[in-house]
Specification:
The chain is 33% helix and 22% strand. It is α/β, with parallel strands linked by helices and 252 residues long. The protein contains eight helices and eleven strands. It has one domain: Purple Acid Phosphatase, chain A, domain 2 (4-Layer Sandwich). The longest helix has 18 residues.
Length: 252
């Protein structure tokens, strides 16, 4: 993609809407919608890097209640011709095709390469990548197993959603409570993952979410890893203006 003059590419991650309760997350949802209203004015594209919801499960004819403000705003922006790309996170693992069919938003389950103005990006949510985190990796294999998803679908939505919401908040492997502190450049496992990727191919930028901590780490002579932070504690996002990438904090 060549970014037109005066346009920018925006990146956001980890809103966890619905947590710890719909009422408590509503102000954060409104704040995020306000951000979308601002960035749509000069956005060439918008990337949402997962965990938009604290839990999301699509039955064949049922999706979770709520989130009408953010879903309506995403539909409006997509309908206006601004492309939006969504990367599935560990809290919305069970997303199917609702975003693609209803909002015309492509959905990815693995990191993808993009090129903007001859700058190469490697973009994804970030969960389960790099060394360590073996407990979560084992759990993810279970949760993404088709048989397990088939079993869960037999729960009545009323009971299934209540159970899943409880687990997403209380289970530390899922909630990521342990991943909200800076571990030091040498111990940041997504930075280590980026360095390994550079052994086989060059990327100018690695952009991830999941860690809930905004950070910038040089991983190669001409390569930088950015983590976007979150919309719970930091309200940070990324922006690429065609020449450089930087993290910013949203203050309405």
């Amino acid at each position: 993609m060549q970014i037109p003059q005066g346009k920018k590419v925006y990146f956001s991650s980890d809103n966890h809407l619905g947590a710890p309760s719909p009422a408590e997350s509503l102000p954060r949802e409104k704040k995020f919608v306000a951000w979308l209203d601002i960035v749509k004015q000069d956005a060439a594209a918008i990337f949402l890097l997962g965990d938009l919801f604290d839990f999301w499960f699509e039955y064949k004819t049922v999706v979770p209640k709520g989130f009408v403000r953010v879903l309506g705003k995403l539909a409006e922006i997509s309908d206006s011709g601004i492309p939006i790309y969504f990367f599935v996170g560990n809290h919305d693992l069970w997303m199917r095709d609702y975003f693609e069919k209803e909002l015309n938003i492509p959905t990815f389950r693995e990191p993808k390469e993009f090129t903007f103005n001859n700058k190469t990006f490697f973009i994804g949510h970030g969960d389960g990548k790099g060394p360590g985190d073996k407990g979560y990796k084992r759990m993810k294999k279970v949760f993404t197993n088709p048989f397990f998803k088939w079993c869960f679908r037999w729960f009545h939505p009323e009971h299934g959603m209540r159970l899943a919401h409880y687990l997403s908040v209380k289970n530390k492997l899922i909630s990521g409570d342990e991943d909200r502190k800076f571990l030091g450049e040498e111990n940041e496992w997504l930075a280590q993952y980026a360095k390994r990727k550079l052994e086989t191919q060059h990327y100018d930028y690695f952009i991830f979410g999941h860690r809930h901590f905004p950070m910038e780490i040089q991983v190669g002579e001409k390569s930088t890893y950015f983590n976007l932070g979150d919309w719970i504690h930091h309200y940070t996002y990324g922006v690429f203006d065609g020449e450089k990438f930087e993290l910013k904090e949203f203050t309405p």
